[in-house]
Amino acid sequence: MLKFLALDTSAKKLLVAAQNADMVASYCAESAEKHSVDLFPAIEDVLRRAQLSLAECDFLACVVGPGSFTGIRIGIAAVKGLAMGSGRPAIAVTSLDALAYAEESETKVAAVDAGHGHVYAQGYGAAVFPAGYYPTEVVAARAALVEAPILAGEEIAGLEAKVVDRTQGLLRAASAKCYLGTAEPSELAAVYLRKSNAEERR
After folding, report:
1. Which residue ranges make up each domain of the chain?
2. pLDDT digits (tens, 9 = 90+) for 12-41
3. Low-confidence residues of the chain, pLDDT below 70?
């Protein structure tokens, strides 16, 4: 069984999980704009409860987006530093794949609230369409076309979605992607599907 640490700083709720073979410890709590403050205490806590050290990890995993622009950068920087310092490889997981892996059905749509009536979304199975920045009504129509459930980590205004277990999804996604190969920590890069609000206002 795999041993690893996984972080998701892309959403309002900070998520940190550690898997030590069949033992799992996790932290998931509203962190608002305090991810940088709460992240490292959460990492220490889950590693302690999972009875796992960084040196024992097979890899470190990080959600690289889409989601909060600042949050994504915090998570990537943390995993890069921890992985380089411990000599561990890294794995990039998108927030959409993490949601998709929380549900076992093949056909589904994963969605992350992007505000202003839009979502970051991706379709899987018979609902397949590429990850992108879409109006909520477009995603709802695509999902309805093939009767695919829309999966989300939290309720999204204007979209009927099933709220799934982000922790379970992140652990499953990281485990699955590990078999496709790991990477050097320096290769981790953010996935942005649109410009930031600051860039759009320029």
Report:
1. 3-95+166-201, 105-163
2. 999 999 999 999 999 999 876 788 899 999
3. 32, 196-202
Does domain 3-95+166-201 fall into CATH 3.40.50.1980?
Answer: no
- Reading the block at residue 198, the tokens are 């600051």
Name the one residue in this structure whose structure tokens are 């205490």: 41
> What phi and psi values does residue 47 have, to the nearest 5 degrees?
-65, -40
pLDDT, position 86: 97
In the sheet with 108-115, reading across from the earlier edge strand, the strands are 129-135, 118-124, 108-115, 150-152, 162-163
Q: Tell me how far the alpha carbon of residue 21 is from its chain's centroid.
A: 21
Give the pLDDT score at 131: 98
pLDDT, residue 33, reads: 76
Check: CB of residue 55 under 8 Å from CB of residue 83.
no
Where does residue 21 rank: exposed (0-12), middle (13-18), buried (19+ CB within 10 A)?
A: exposed
Greatest CA span in the chain, whole angstroms?
49
Q: pLDDT value at position 42?
A: 97
Q: Rounded distance, CA 88 to CA 182, Å?
A: 10
Contact (Cβ atoms closer than 8 angstroms) between residue 8 and residue 29: no
Strands of the 90-93 sheet, one edge to the other: 23-30, 13-20, 3-8, 59-63, 90-93
